[in-house]
Design goal:
It is a single chain. The protein has 189 residues and is an alpha/beta fold. The protein is 58% helix and 14% strand. The chain has helices spanning 14-25, 32-41, 45-55, 62-79, 95-104, 118-132, 139-159, 173-184; strands at 2-8, 28-31, 85-89, 110-115, 164-168. The protein has a 5-stranded parallel β-sheet, with helices on both faces. Helix 2 packs across helix 3 (45-55) and helix 6 packs across helix 7 (139-159). The longest helix has 21 residues, at 139-159. It is globular, with a radius of gyration of 16 Å. It starts with a strand and ends in a 5-residue tail after the last helix.
Length: 189
């Protein structure tokens, strides 16, 4: 089974592209953001502390996110939910997370980095904020998320340069997907 990480700044189009990648390759989708929001919605004490961090645009502790991802992967394997592997969406967000993932879960086979400008991220997120009602979609939090992303993502891309495929995600959905399939097709040939 393959494990693919999808990275990119907030609003780069990860969600849109992940849907298409999942449909084409039969991968089991795990979004760290969705897992965190599910935990917040559960009303658990862990969820309450996560809500506080997320509303400030801060990172959630690595061990919590890694536990949530590992639990979901194990459940999917046990239930036979995938035959091809996993698409890990929005993780790792910093280099140490990636190292721990590879040490404690499994190595990544490929890392797709959907790259867009800060201006594009801000524009897309402000558009989403107008309709999403997500607590982390406000101008101040978005600006902080972009700043943190740029520093942390640069470290990931440098460390994993042999596995990273950088895709310019400023194009149309179809153009971006075509580039993603060029990167992924060899893994599933």
């Amino acid at each position: 089974m393959k494990t693919i990480w999808i990275i990119g700044g907030p609003g780069c189009g990860k969600g849109t592209q992940c849907e298409r990648i999942i449909a084409k390759y039969g991968l089991y989708h795990i979004s760290s953001g969705d897992l965190l929001r599910e935990e917040v919605a559960s009303g658990s004490p862990r969820g309450a502390s996560l809500q506080e961090l997320m509303s400030k645009g801060l990172f959630v502790p690595t061990d919590i996110v890694l536990d949530l991802i590992r639990e979901r992967m194990e459940k999917a394997k046990k239930e036979g939910a995938t035959k091809t592997g996993f698409l890990i969406d929005g993780y790792p967000r910093e280099l140490e997370q990636g190292k721990l993932f590879e040490e404690k879960v499994c190595p990544a086979d490929k890392i797709i980095f959907f790259d867009v400008s800060n201006e594009t991220m801000m524009k897309r997120l402000m558009g989403r904020a107008a309709v999403s009602q997500r607590a982390d979609d406000n101008a101040e939090t978005i600006k902080k998320r972009i700043e943190i992303f740029n520093v942390k993502n640069g470290e990931i891309v440098e460390h994993y340069k042999d596995k990273v495929v950088r895709i310019n995600a400023e194009g149309t959905v179809d153009e971006v997907f075509a580039e993603a399939t060029k990167a992924l097709d060899p893994l599933f040939a």
